[in-house]
Amino acid sequence: VSKIVEFWASHSVADAEKFATNLKKAADDVAAKAGASDLAGAKASEEQAEQNCKSCHQAHRKFGLGGWKIK
User: Fold this and answer.
1) Residue range 33-40: average pLDDT?
2) Angstrom distance (rounded) from CA 5 to CA 28
3) Distance CA 18, CA 4 (A)
């Protein structure tokens, strides 16, 4: 996930960098909550991570002849 944050930061795409940063926080929360046996909390954090992925993909990916590409 850190590489995703670095990628978007290096391309100066503010909303994508924010999505990636939020994804990293949510992924870290999943690990922490699962480690503490807070399965409901881990599931909620996983849903936040998934939403950030979906939002970024909708904004910055497109499907073409060669498959998925960054817009």
Assistant:
1) 98
2) 14
3) 11
pTM of the model: 0.87
Say which residues have a Cβ less than 8 Å from residue 49's Cβ, sequence separation at least 6: 23, 26, 27, 30
Single-letter residue type at 45? S
User: For residue 58, what pLDDT is reported?
Assistant: 96
How far apart, in whole angstroms, are the C-alpha atoms of residue 44 and residue 30? 8
Report how far residue 26's alpha carbon sits from residue 32's, in angstroms, rounded to the nearest whole number.
10
- Evaluate whether 29 touches 47 at the Cβ level (below 8 Å): no
d(CA 51, CA 35): 22
Give 3-42 as a DSSP string. HHHHHHHHTT-HHHHHHHHHHHHHHHHHHHHHHTT-HHHH
